[in-house]
Structure formats: structure tokens, C-alpha cells
Amino acid sequence: MNHDTTLPGGAKKKEVVSTHSVFGAPCWVSLTSRDLKATEEFYGAVLGWRWRNAKLGDHFRIALAGGVPVAGIAAVAAMWQMAVTWTPYFAVPNADEAAARVRERGGTAAVGPLSFPPGRAALLADRDGAIFGIWEGELISNWEAWRRAAPTFIRLHTRNAFDAALFYGEILDWATDRPGCCEVEYEGGEVVLRSRGDVVARIDSGAVEAAPDPSVRPHWQIHFAVADVADCARAAEKHGGSVLREEEEEAVLRDPDGAQFTVTSRREH
After folding, report:
1. What residues contact 197, with CB distance under 8 A and at least 6 apart?
2. CA distance 73 to 2
3. pLDDT tens-place string over residues 196-211
């Protein structure tokens, strides 16, 4: 599992925003890796990221885009016998309560909650097996800048979007009467999640639980905004990755370890 402090591993003491005031929304994304140096080189070439150390030690890094922390990398896949994958983390006021809700509703609490100062994290799976994380505690400094600079949004490909929205809504207090909660709307057959007016996640139907192709099984897909989709696709191929699908404004890429992610034209958002 991706327990990088890489989570909000860049949190600072000033201008602290916590999951008690921002809850239910995606608050971080992180990647498990087998080879930290190779991962840094690939994403540096494809997305132009720079790197800084994280608080958890030599196996962890924080990716920077324009000086803003955008993602965490944890080179623990081989050490912890974990799959290489991108994972979104959602802000929760209480990680123990959220993990208990997951279990009560037929999901799985795979790891945690565990302490990762300045907070606590857990790795979970929903009823259809899609992996996601939760984070309780401080968020990265200037969290609003992170949200606009890093992933444009995350998308859940699942069997039934409406059923999934009910599951996550009960776990993460979406569309409740709590001040600051995320808003849920149904648009064009998919579920759209908004936090403070910004689209932060989408849920659509169509994934098949038993499909042999992992990209067709229920999963969360991370979308990054880029200036040139075609350039990213060519860079991915040049540096050992592959292009699974490419259109003018969007491409689905796979890194050399097998982790999938999407690059989306910045003009679209």
C-alpha cells in the first residue's frame, strides 16, 4: 500500500488546513513504485516534475510541479509486496470512523488506519474492489494551490455509478447537511463530485468486475493536467512506458512499472 508521507508529507505548520475543515474531497494522490530513481526519471520526463525528500525516509519522495507539491511516490512495492498503482486519498475528520463505515457497508480495510505524522492514513477498497485511501490530519500547505496544480480530477470507473455514489457518500459524508461537505450531482449518466464549487471527482458506470484487463475492472483513475497531451504520450513511450489510449485532448498512459494514469489537456479545464 501506498503509505507515503508522501501523503500530506509536505505539510507545514503555518497556514495549516486540516481534514476537519476540508472533508470528503480528494486531498492527495500517491504512487507505489519498485524503483524510486526510475520512477523519478519517468515522471520527470513525462510530466516535468521535480522532487524533494519526504519525512518518512529514503524510500519516499514528493513530486513538485512549479514548486507546488502534487503527488507522493513510495518505493515500497517490492519491499511490502504491493501492486504498483496510483491511489487517491480522501480527507476525513476521523480515520477510524471512516474505516469502520467501509467495513459496515461491505468494503475492505486493507491497511490501517496507521499513524503518519502529521496525521493518520488507511488503505481501503470499496464493494467492487476499487482501491482508495483516507487521510485524517493536516493537509499540505496551500492546499487550494495543490488542488488546482495537480490532478485535474479523479474518476472512478465502476459497475454502477449510482450505487458507488451512495457507498462513498455514506463513508465520506457527501451531500449531507454538514457545512463544507462535497456536493453530488448526476449529469449525463455519471456522478459529479464538487468541493467548494470545483469538480474534484467523477464516477461512471461500465467497468466489469471480472474483466481480464485491469483497466476495465473497477478502479480510480488519476487525471493530470498537461500543456501538450501528445508530447506526454511520446515521452512516455521514449522512457519505457506505453500509451493505452490517445485522443487529441486526453491520453491514458502506463508507466514502466505498470501504473496507469491519464493526462488531460489543460485547455479542457
Report:
1. none
2. 8
3. 888 889 999 987 777 6
pLDDT tens across 210-258, in order?
Answer: 766 666 789 999 999 899 999 999 999 999 999 999 999 999 999 999 9
∠ Cα 117 119 124 (to 5°): 120
Grid cell 509536505 is found at 10
Task: Report how far apart, in Å, the C-alpha atoms of 172 and of each of 76, 183, 190, 239, 247 are.
Answer: 27, 11, 18, 38, 33
Q: Would you state the cell numbers that stand for residue 99, as one nine-digit string? A: 474505516
Which three-class secondary structure state does DSSP give residue 48? coil
Q: Which residues on adjacent β-strands are paired with residue 111?
A: 123
In angstroms, rounded to a whole number, what is the distance separating the alpha carbons of residues 33 and 250? Answer: 24
251, β-bridge pairs: 246, 263
Single-letter code of the amino acid located at 128: D
